[in-house]
Design brief:
Elements: E1 6-14, H1 21-24, E2 70-73, H2 85-92, E3 97-100, H3 105-113, E4 117-120, H4 123-135, E5 140-144, E6 149-151, E7 158-160, H5 165-173, H6 177-182, H7 185-198
Parallel strand pairs: 1-2, 2-3, 3-4
Antiparallel strand pairs: 1-5, 5-6, 6-7
Protein name: 3-isopropylmalate dehydratase
Domain Aconitase A/isopropylmalate dehydratase small subunit swivel: 17-123
EC number: 4.2.1.33
Amino acid sequence: MKPFTRVTAPAVFVPGLNCDTDQIIPGRFIKADRAEGYDKFLFHDIRRDAAGELDPDFPLNRPGAEAAKILLVEDNFGCGSSREGAVYALADAGIRALIAPGFGDIFHSNALKNGLVPVRLPPETCAALADHLTDNPGAVITVDLEAGLVTLPGNLGSHDFSIPAFSREAILKGLDEIEMTMTHMDEIRAFETARIAANPWLGR
């Protein structure tokens, strides 16, 4: 995955309380080849009208929205099934960070494993940001993972945020869990050598 230290980019507000993973990517698409990109499946059904055409009123279908790398979403985003494809769809669409009052637990974990930064902010801050983004399409937000700070547009200020230390280090370096483990191979080998020396029967 790509390293993430600091991203400054336009943001889009996608409303929808308790938006589940089936809304993020319908289940019928999760067998598709990831190499061909999951971005075309992102919000597939809810961003289209009854005729199957893109709804011009859906936030990500509006002019300029393709530049967004940050989404503001509503509480409990990513609830429902544990499908990792929901994160793939967001990542393949170029989304690097999500801002919300809260996220589904498994979705939150999957996001961290794939370098997608979930930023939790108080509900009142998210509500004020939603109003600002609605009135000011293309407003820019900075998510600074290294500093643990998100800077909002207008007069909404800067706010601290945090993610687990292991995930933070991995995302800053652009490494997945296996690659992070491999960075400790010298210590692992030294431990195994000492363990076998102290317990020779383990090496039989």
